[in-house]
Amino acid sequence: MSEAVLSGCHYDVPVFTLDDETEITHSEFLPSGKVKVYIEKPDEKDCFHHMICYLPDYEVDDVYGFSKEEMEKYIDIVRSSPPKG
Question: Which residues contact 57 (CB under 8 A, 6 or more apart)?
């Protein structure tokens, strides 16, 4: 399994890829006890849309290009498949 480093966190790449090519990855537990989930989707115009979601509170940060509906959809997906660790 390959690894990537994004923003100082190790991610397994990808945790899963959706039918629309969205990739969802997550960090190991951070010193704060949270897990950083990174969601990225290719976009022809903008190159990539992305967002970060911190577990266990599902706190959303650094959103670019996603609509409110898309954000809710991806958070629901993360809620249904939380990282194991």
Answer: 34
| Cis omega (within 30 of 0) for bond into 56 | yes
Integer Cα distance of 85 and 68 in angstroms: 29
Strand extents, DSSP E, 1-85: 3-6, 9-12, 16-17, 23-29, 35-43, 47-55, 59-64
- Which residues touch 23 (CB under 8 Å, ≥6 apart)? 13, 14, 15, 16, 17, 39, 40, 41
Which structure tokens are listed for 52?
């970060």
What single DSSP character describes residue 82?
A: P
State pLDDT tens for residues 32-80.
999 999 999 999 999 999 999 999 999 999 999 999 999 999 999 999 9
